[in-house]
Design goal:
The chain has 389 residues and is α/β, with parallel strands linked by helices. It contains ten helices and 16 strands. The chain has two domains: 265 residues, Aminopeptidase; 115 residues, 2-Layer Sandwich (Alpha-Beta Plaits), CATH 3.30.70. Helix 2 runs antiparallel to helix 4 and helix 4 crosses helix 10.
């Protein structure tokens, strides 16, 4: 493990990560980030660079010219709408935006892989390096896959990593089968009729139905008899009427996030949540409207892809952590499971490291070198070529 973590990245690759950290852009706004990545990739002499995939996605293609599999390595371009509170020199320069999930580090790792491929090209097949937009909203992967140009570089294997605080620094965690949950946001609007607060009987308040829904929705998986731990419904926002003492409310909003271990169970739970809200609204004489947001497919790791990850970790002397249950958080990488054999793994950011999406999170630069080494080893396993120096 010590040798694995001793694989330090070059100073300019660390500098690139910190430069990206200073200038975060939100989902579907990643124009400057994408342009910066293109500039960096041009120095790495790929056979082709595709830009504007989906919205701002970028792909670099290294083609051996010899028949063989196509393997894709994906990272993410977008930051988060969170104000960073750190004080280091490379903290975000854009108020209210921050790379507080580590996508800056993931990009640096894939750029490091591009530098390796520039001098150690694949011996067979193709290697595609994808810098994906809009991961945080769940829209980016679908947009890239739907782009007709992507069909020319459609992969046989797709790999990605995500740093994960709470695990020992550099430890690798992976499992076959379900790895990350599906998720989707459900916004419920209940519509009644406002009235003067002195005459609430003259209106139709959604308050009682709102209360029943706020209690019943989180209990829905248990009510339906679903396997414990395989699904959950989380209340994330609620609003009743206007902030005024003189008005009895006529509208209410309830937002929930629905999560499940696979896409089939997710669809069932979303449908049941809407049916419950519709039934209670009708019983109360209320109108009801639904809007869905941020749809993430469940992530399912292919057994052969996991074997490649495990072999790379063993070869490089990385320590392993057991991933017993799938992670309840979602990752847009799950969408690639519909077109390729996918392998997503986690790389420990340190047991005491600030958690993902915390305002003081920062990607550990010590992970850049090990991340490049893991991806390079997987590349060599599938497409041949030379070992990472």
């Amino acid at each position: 493990m010590r040798e694995f973590l001793s694989r330090t990245a070059s100073a300019d690759l660390v500098a690139l990560r910190q430069e990206l950290h200073r200038r975060p852009e939100l989902s579907d706004e990643e124009r400057e980030t994408a342009a910066r990545i293109v500039t960096e990739l041009e120095r790495c002499q790929p056979d082709e660079i595709l830009s504007g995939l989906g919205t701002h996605g970028v792909a670099a293609v290294y083609d051996s010219g010899v028949e063989g599999p196509t393997v894709l390595f994906r990272c993410e371009l977008d930051g988060l709408p969170i104000t960073e509170i750190s004080t280091f020199n490379w903290r975000s320069e854009i108020e209210g935006k921050g790379h507080l999930c580590g996508h800056d580090g993931h990009m640096a790792i894939v750029v490091g892989l591009a530098r390796h491929l520039a001098v150690n090209r694949p011996a067979r097949g193709r290697v595609v390096l994808l810098f994906q937009p809009a991961e945080e909203t769940g829209a980016g992967a679908a947009g890239v896959i739907a782009d007709l140009r992507f069909q020319r570089i459609r992969p046989d294997f797709a790999f990605a990593l995500h740093n994960l605080p709470g695990l020992p620094l550099g430890a690798v965690g992976v499992r076959s089968g379900p790895f990350t949950f599906a998720s989707e946001g459900l916004a419920i609007r209940l519509s009644g009729r406002t009235s003067h607060a002195a005459q609430p009987e003259a209106g139709l308040s959604p308050a009682a139905i709102m209360g029943r829904l706020m209690e019943a929705l989180p209990e829905l998986p248990e009510t339906l008899g679903q396997v414990p731990g395989h699904s959950l419904v989380t209340l994330s926002h609620a609003r009743l009427g206007e902030a005024a003492f003189g008005i009895a409310p006529g509208e209410a909003d309830i937002w929930v996030t629905v999560r499940a271990i696979d896409d089939r169970l997710q669809a069932e739970l979303m449908g049941e949540a809407e049916m419950l809200a519709r039934r209670l609204a009708e019983a109360g004489g209320l109108g009801v409207r639904f809007d869905r947001h941020e749809n993430f497919a469940a992530g399912h790791n292919d057994a052969e892809a996991v074997e490649k990850i495990e072999a790379a970790a063993t070869e490089l002397g990385a320590s392993r952590v057991e991933v017993g249950d799938p992670f309840r958080w979602s990752e847009d990488f799950g969408r690639f499971g519909s077109i390729a054999k996918t392998g997503l793994f986690v790389l420990g950011s340190g047991e005491d490291h600030p958690r993902l999406h915390n305002p003081d999170f920062d990607f550990p630069d010590e992970l850049i070198g090990p991340g490049v080494a893991l991806f390079a080893a997987i590349t060599r396993d599938i497409c041949g070529g030379q070992a990472l120096d």
